[in-house]
Amino acid sequence: MYAFKFHRPETVRQASNLLAKNEDAKILAGGHTLVPTMKLRLASPSDLIDLSQIEGLTGIELKGRSISIGAMTRHFEVANSPIVQENVPALAHLAGVIGDPAVRHRGTIGGSVANNDPTADYPAGCLGTGATIVTNKRKIKADDFFVGMFETALETDEIIVRVMFPLVNKAGYEKFRNQASRYALVGVFVSKRGSDIRVAVTGAGGSGVFRVTAFEEALKKRFSPKSLDGLTVSPDGLNGDIHGSAEYRAHLIGVMAKRAVARATA
Amino acid sequence: MKQPRVEDDALTRGAGRFLDDAPQPGELHAYFLRSPHAHAKVSSLDVESARTAPGVLAVLTAADMKAANITSIARHVPMPGLVIPLRPPLADERVLHIGQPVAAVIAETARQARDAAEMINVEYDVLPSVVDVRQAIKPGAPQLWPEAPNNINVDWPGPAADPAANAAEVEQIIANAAHVARITVVNQRLIVASMETRGATGSYDAASDRYTLRVCSQGVSPLRDVMASVMGLKKEQLRLITEDVGGAFGMKSPAYPEYPVVLLAAKKLGRPVHWMSDRSEAFISDNQGRDAVTEGALALDDKGHFLALRVRHLANVGGFLSVAGANLATVLFAKCFPQMYRIPKIDIGVRCVFTNTLPLGPYRGAGRPESNYAMERLVEEAARITGIDRAKLRRRNLIPRSAIPFRTEVGTLYDSGDFPVVYDKALAQADYAGFNKRRRESTKRGRWRGIGISCFLEHSGGSPTEGALVAFPGGNVVSLGLNVQSTGQGHASVFPQLVAQRLGIPSEQVIHRHGDTDMGIEGAASVASRSAMTAGSATFRATEAMLAKGVVVVAKALDVAQDKVSYRDGYFEVASTNHRLSLFDAASRAKEMFARGEIAETLDTNITVDTPLSFPNGCHVAELEIDPDTGVITTLNYTAVDDNGTVLHPAILYGQLHGGIAQGMGQALMEFAHYDSENGQLVTGSFQDYALPRAEDMPPIHVGVHAVPATTNPLGVKGVGEAGTTASIAAFMNAVMDAIPGDAAATLDMPATQEKVWAACQKAKAAQGK
């Protein structure tokens, strides 16, 4: 790890100013991607801006027809939250299958969403429910937020403060783990909210999380695993590496999508 | 558990003392700059700015090592025709694998050393590289060593007295046989991945001109011998110390480039020099395991009796030859045949090959798993082509108890064993007979169920010689000093108990000491599943010899005839009297008598014993289910019936089997050290990409022991450390192949990853016309 300046702002505004002032600054949320990368000397931010002392960034609340989750809320809190478990159990399940217990007790939803790792689980949860990412500046629809691999719509001094998940009628998440990293080789989140059907895929896309509109159209007719029979995803544009070819990932998207629908309708 | 492991309390509470827990006063830190290329000429090396960086005391390069006459760490048991290229601790003109150390920075802190290393300027002329063993022997492949044409490290003709005549005879049998099963199987390269990475601390005492190397070894005495030779020292000038070690599996037994460097640096700077590998570094600096391609042909008569076996084995020893690289792939590999089977003629040929990969080293089994895997795949293939039930085919060819002692075609003598009983027990315990019913039940749920049998036999012991020191340091305790090194096996729970039981004293009165060459105990380390049998035998003999000396001392002290003195439960007793002397009093008397010159030695007894090989054997059965839609394997049940001879400590025996089975499952189903064929980079350079089995992957394991004591050592024990790995690889693979219908998986190679299994399932479905 290289030397860096450590900041502990007490407000989001202070944090945002620090970000604006220091070009190579990074935000420290749970640190479960950033810190190992720094230890490997693959990242060398000049400044680390720790969000842990800022009030109001944690917690889970039911707000109207949405669940609001503070950006610094840890995965284990989401996994074990009665509010999430009762209203969107698929989201609690998703948080509970991230990493291992150590990761779940440090990693945060804001960190995961902002990092937009192409194999992370939360991007699928956000896109798959039609969540809204709320920053210090604006509200961004998940559909507009995840731009590409490790890329988001966030501006340089923009900080996620919470994520709002709509209360979907039905939802399911199926994660197929990479045997080595245990990240998602393919993860599929499906949901139904009235006529809004979403199928979001993580792990497989060459530019991160994406929706499968063909599956969504089929599920609009009937929200059942059978509706996906015979439907496939093209391997074009999907990741292929030593852990799985694009063809294998394409196939798994179909299998996981069916299983996610089955889980959602169980 | 009746017999607990006495070391676990400290180890599980973080109270162990591993290498990094023992900082030496005033120690400096070393960082090794390593080659980023698989094969390159070092065209220039500029360390000047690093030398003047903050905290830096020295930067060492090949020139420093040469100036100190430390030219090569390569040491290997002699073999005819074996090429042993020089292996400089710091790269000289050329690097032959990624991770090869090029320079060492010594600084006040580890961070300063690492920072300074980034200022070193190395220019490389990248050369073409080759990482695959089959590619390396092809015409036109990059040549690694001028002394090794076609990259051949050794072309070993096998154990037969007249290899050519033997090969011709076997060829004749194969040509005329009713059936010939033929296979080509790959043992992929593996990362050893010990929980504690490697490290070393060198120090030097100018007053005595003596070095000390604190290092994570598997036995200090043999590594001291090698390191003294590397450094050009007399044995007495080098002390090796090893405390707790967090896993080794053979990988920590040899000398490594970092060790002479920290020793030389310590001498130059007059302060201890410490190096500890981090995990990323371990991936590119530890010896790696397996990596071989085996072609086998098994001839059978029309009744399915085995007639002859031919094996051609191609092993990848890496860019340099490590301590046992060629030995494990030739002698140790060949000695495992014909396992439990009667095979009248055997022809084995092995070629070891240099490639631009990390050196090959022993890894749990060291040739035995490779051998057993080939044999059991051959048997499975034989069953497939003959249509004879695989269980019956195996049973038909087992060596019966009546044929033991049995002299094999490869020159080993099986002293004991009851293979048919072990086999029948395993199949009964696994409910082999009820498998088809369970398979039908799985099929109803859309899952494909398979069962895999693996008979195994291996040779444990390796080098026969091992020592033990029974001594009386004063007070009412006896110390047992050993050269064999616990790296997690639980030696402190086993060996002191042997002494305590024989002496009839509480085990708390026996102190276990190990890991210090200054104890003067000779031996050959904890490798080859040998500690219990060799150090156990040495402990037994040392205790007996000590008691024999005690009888003489007590007879003198009490002025009675020696044949009137006997030992029981802590006391030497004089027959028909109430005179007696406690063990510890006798030891003090002996010291006094020795001081007065009345006896030649005290009761302290340092003995070296030769223990012949033993032959652990057993039958393992894996049962698993495949999800054909994804290729995901769920292991449902695992049965292991083993003959490891007399069991000294059941919990440790079970633990060894469980751990070995886990590592075998890792190889069968997921592990693979994958090198890029273009540039020789290790693609799986971290646990993000290198898949290790997790606890959740483990099936329930049912161990059944069928102990037939070894006749070749006084305790009757056989090895157990490598048994689980040796057996389980084939059990898992045979089960996977069995689960997939038809011939779709008949040539499946390890690791049977989810994608490969899925692809085989697709093929099977297509063949079924589904």
Tally of DSSP helical segments of chain B: 20
- Give a count of the beta strands of chain B, DSSP E runs of length 2 or more: 28
What fraction of the residues of chain A are assigned to beta strands by DSSP? 15-25%
User: CATH superfamily of the domain at 170-265 in chain A, called what?
Assistant: CO dehydrogenase flavoprotein, C-terminal domain
**In the CATH hierarchy, what is the architecture of the largest domain in chain B at level 2?**
2-Layer Sandwich
How many angstroms separate the termini of chain A? Answer: 48 Å
> Helix tally of chain A?
11
Report, as a whole number of angstroms, the end-to-end distance of chain B. Answer: 52 Å
Quick tags:
heterodimer; A: 266 residues; alpha+beta; Uridine Diphospho-n-acetylenolpyruvylglucosamine Reductase, domain 2; Enolase-like, domain 1; five-stranded antiparallel beta sheet; four-stranded antiparallel beta sheet; 25% strand; B: 770 residues; Aldehyde Oxidoreductase, domain 3; Aldehyde Oxidoreductase, domain 4; 3 domains; seven-stranded mixed beta sheet; five-stranded mixed beta sheet; globular
Care to describe what's here?
The complex is a heterodimer of chains A (266) and B (770). In chain A, a hairpin with a 7-residue loop joins strand 13 and strand 14 (210-211). Chain A is globular. Among the domains of chain A are: 1-54, Uridine Diphospho-n-acetylenolpyruvylglucosamine Reductase, domain 2, CATH 3.30.43; 170-265, Enolase-like, domain 1 (2-Layer Sandwich). Chain A has a five-stranded antiparallel sheet with strand order 4-5-10-6-7. By secondary structure, chain A is α+β, with helices and mostly antiparallel strands. Chain A has eleven helices and 14 strands. Chain A starts with a strand and ends with a helix. Chain B is an alpha+beta fold. Chain B folds into three domains: 8-127 and 198-276, Aldehyde oxidase/xanthine dehydrogenase, a/b hammerhead (Aldehyde Oxidoreductase, domain 3, Alpha-Beta Complex), CATH 3.90.1170.50; 289-460 and 613-769, Aldehyde oxidase/xanthine dehydrogenase, molybdopterin binding domain (Aldehyde Oxidoreductase, domain 4, 2-Layer Sandwich), CATH 3.30.365.10; 465-610, Aldehyde oxidase/xanthine dehydrogenase, molybdopterin binding domain (Aldehyde Oxidoreductase, domain 4, 2-Layer Sandwich), CATH 3.30.365.10. Chain B is 30% helix and 24% strand. Chain B is built from 20 helices and 28 strands. Chain B has a seven-stranded mixed sheet with strand order 3-5-1-12-9-10-11, sandwiched between helices. Chain B has a five-stranded mixed sheet with strand order 7-15-14-13-8, with helices on both faces. In chain B, strand 13 (289-300) and strand 14 (306-318) form a beta hairpin. The longest helix of chain B is centred in the C-terminal third of the chain and has 28 residues, at 531-558. The radius of gyration of chain B is 28 Å and the shape is globular. Chain B starts with 7 loop residues before the first helix and ends with a helix.
